[in-house]
What we know:
Blueprint: E1 3-5, E2 12-14, E3 18-24, E4 30-32, E5 40-46, H1 49-56, H2 60-65, H3 71-75
Antiparallel strand pairs: 1-2, 3-4, 3-5
The structure holds zinc ion.
Zinc ion binds next to strand 5.
Amino acid sequence: MTERKCVGCGEMKPRSEMIKITKRYKDGKIIIEPDSKTFGRSAYFCYNKNCKELALKKNKLNKALKTSADLKGLLDGREYKSK
Ligand SMILES: [Zn+2]
């Protein structure tokens, strides 16, 4: 099973339990749960509110993606219940 590291809690988790966020190489646009044709720098975090908040803290997610975009704004308004 493919495992990814959570930017929030730092644990390795199965890809299916995580949310993917990608900065597209082409134009630097931030895409949440991109399709397989989107190439860019990606980061992952667990599907829960706590890890989302941890990932946003201290700009961890911004640093992981090397972006200054308003990730909190993008991520708020989405639901992060477990699948
Ligand atoms: Zn996590």
